[in-house]
Amino acid sequence: MGVAVIGAGFIANMSHLPSIKRISELNLVAVVDIVEERAKNAAKRFGAKQYFTDFRKVLDMDEVDIVDVCTPTYTHREISVEAMNSGKNVLCEKPIALKLRDADEMINVAKKNNVKFMVAHCLRFWPEYARVKKMLDEGVIGEPRIARAYRYSSFPEWAPWHKRIDMGGGVFVDMSIHDVDFLRWSIGEVDRVYAKGGTYLYDDATSHDYTHSILYFKNGAIGFVEGSWIMPKGFRFTTYLEIAGERGLLTVDNRTPSSLSIYRPGGKEDYSTVFSEDAYFLEIREFVKSVIEDKDPPVKGEDARKTLEVVLAVVKSVIENRPINLPLVGEVIE
Questions:
Q1: Using an 8 Å Cβ cutoff, are 121 and 179 in contact?
Q2: Does 288 reside within a domain?
Q3: Smaller CB count within 10 Å for the chain: N or C?
Q4: Domain span including residue 230
Q5: Contact assessment for residue 293 and residue 136, using Cβ atoms and an 8 Å cutoff
């Protein structure tokens, strides 16, 4: 199947394009970027036949079956909708959009055109996290009761549009959405949130660069999720997950080679397996499989919308300084 990658920035060059080249069922037809030199260089590096600066060029190409959207968040709706209206299957980077109505339109357009639409929530495919999900499903630590997750980095200077809330949503929408999605997938739906945060790095920014939130799950579990872009330049990207259940504790820490550990009463047991498979390769491969086998992709648009709703509720909580109940009424980011 032919695939066109739209957006030749960081995530495309580091993850999507290398993964596509590893999948035998895919043929990289074209790379698109509004900066011609970026599109040209990526096409040359990864062996694409053509490159363009206008994404609509690939929508008329019969040999393109899949469009992989790796552009900034504020462009996701427009590109995805036009691609699906052209009969293309779409894999879109997270978050699905910045507005719930945009997410709804993307979901409805996919159904109307009978094409596959998946949002790339990669943490579901990260081997350590996928193992945690499996262990939770198997009841290894009993019913999950408390969760803690954080994600720290310096500000993504390579994407200055992240300063604007109407373009990127801020740190919780762009980065902590990974942890929120995983906790939703693993523990259950969120009923209410309460958050604190703000804008600390740039006086001209409108998005929040630091946020921490309490998630109240419908099943009674509680989660603490923290996201930060205010770490100093050069700070190592750091993630941590901790889920406590009735009979034990699971942790994932990207600072240690043995990142997945389980703690049980009376002692500690480490899982020292080195998880070497790449999550981006796994997620793209699964999407391709859903197209080939004509089945639902593993992360449908409806699921991505639910995660978006939670992170938007967190943004609303920071802005209004109060707890926010779900479902949301109205839009948070306009």
A1: no
A2: no
A3: C
A4: 124-279+309-325
A5: no
